[in-house]
Write a structure and sequence with these properties.
- GO terms for molecular function: methyltransferase activity.
- S-adenosyl-L-methionine binds at residues 119-123, 142, 170, 186.
- Residues 111-247 form the Methyltransferase domain.
- Residues 5-74 form the Release factor glutamine methyltransferase N-terminal domain.
- One of its GO terms (biological process) is methylation.
- The longest helix has 15 residues, at 50-64.
- The chain has two domains: 3-66, Ubiquitin-associated (UBA) domain (Helicase, Ruva Protein, domain 3, Orthogonal Bundle), CATH 1.10.8; 88-277, Rossmann fold (3-Layer(aba) Sandwich).
- It has 279 residues and is of the alpha/beta class.
- The protein has helices at residues 3-14, 21-33, 38-42, 50-64, 69-73, 96-106, 124-132, 145-157, 213-216, 218-227, 246-255, and strands spanning 75-78, 81-84, 114-118, 137-142, 163-167, 180-185, 231-240, 259-265, 271-277.
- Helices cover 38% and strands 19% of the residues.
- It has eleven helices and nine strands.
- α2 (21-33) packs antiparallel against α4 (50-64) and α6 (96-106) runs parallel beside α7.
Length: 279
């Protein structure tokens, strides 16, 4: 079958399953054929053999059932990096790049900063900061051992060597370590009863990385209460959080004695990142 015919049928098949059906189809076929999507515009008449069509149809079926494209491909772009992804971790999203931007804006590039990423998952935040700040010493921790190994592979994949990953439930494995200039986290922040948990890609992502008690605030509050013992004076603590949680996060930071508390909006103009400074 010709490439253009195959893509047309795939698009129609995915139309009711995805808002990005055409792109999804192109990405999956490019993956099967080991080409870039631009190849399809140059060679639409090229024939695809039966074995590749079968592989493509298998991926289409999984996508039509809602499985995220990133899991099907096994990788996802984030910041300037290409990251391996797996069902043991969240898929890095564009909104989280806002957290990286805000973090970079407060770092002193003239010194060797120590940075901690709590709940690192794929290592997306830690690796992006390490790549942009080669003088920095970055540590990423995650409760899931499989995620820690994945983050380590992503460091090797992107040739970043100023970062270390370790297994820890938040600060548990960090007792006695040198304090940090910056602590960042994209923790679980979705209410267990949120209807969005049964919709879209999040149906396939690990609930342990998505859901927190107390209306999604439990892990954020735990980190705020524990963080100061691991921070230098004038260090920053910052979170990615839900679109409707900024006020609660600001209140929690202020109640714990943080100053300069401020929220920043994401691409959709929702409050997405909140920071505070340890005085």
């Amino acid at each position: 079958m010709r490439i253009d015919e195959l893509l047309k049928g795939a698009f129609e098949r995915l139309t009711f399953a995805s808002e990005t059906a055409q792109l999804d189809a192109q990405l999956l076929l490019a993956h099967v054929l080991s080409v870039s999507t631009s190849y399809f515009y140059t060679w639409p008449e090229k024939q695809v053999d039966a074995a590749d069509i079968e592989r493509f149809n298998t991926l289409l079926t999984r996508r039509a059932q809602g499985e995220p494209v990133a899991y099907l491909l096994g990788h996802q772009a984030f910041w300037s990096l290409e990251l391996e992804v797996a069902p043991c971790t969240l898929i890095p999203r564009a909104d989280t790049e806002r957290l990286v931007e805000v973090a970079l804006s407060v770092l002193d590039v003239s010194k060797t900063s120590r940075i901690l990423d709590l709940g690192t998952g794929t290592g997306a935040i830690a690796l992006s900061l390490a790549a942009e700040q080669p003088k920095a010493a970055v540590v990423g921790v995650d409760l899931i051992e499989e995620a820690v190994e994945l983050a380590k592979r992503n460091a090797l994949r992107n040739k970043i060597d100023n970062v270390a990953f370790m297994q820890s439930r938040w600060f548990d494995a960090l007792e006695g370590c040198e304090p940090f200039d910056l602590i960042v986290s994209n923790p679980p922040y979705i209410d267990p009863n949120d209807v969005h948990l049964s919709q879209g890609d999040v149906r396939f992502e690990p609930k342990s990385a998505l859901v927190a008690d107390n209306h999604g605030m439990a892990d954020i509050e735990h980190i705020i209460q524990s963080a100061q013992r691991f921070m230098k004076h004038n260090a920053y603590l910052m979170f990615e959080h839900g679109y409707d949680q900024a006020a609660a996060v600001r209140e929690a930071l202020k109640a714990a004695g943080f100053v300069g508390v401020e929220s920043f909006q994401d691409l959709g103009q929702n409050d997405r990142v909140t920071i505070g400074q340890y005085p």
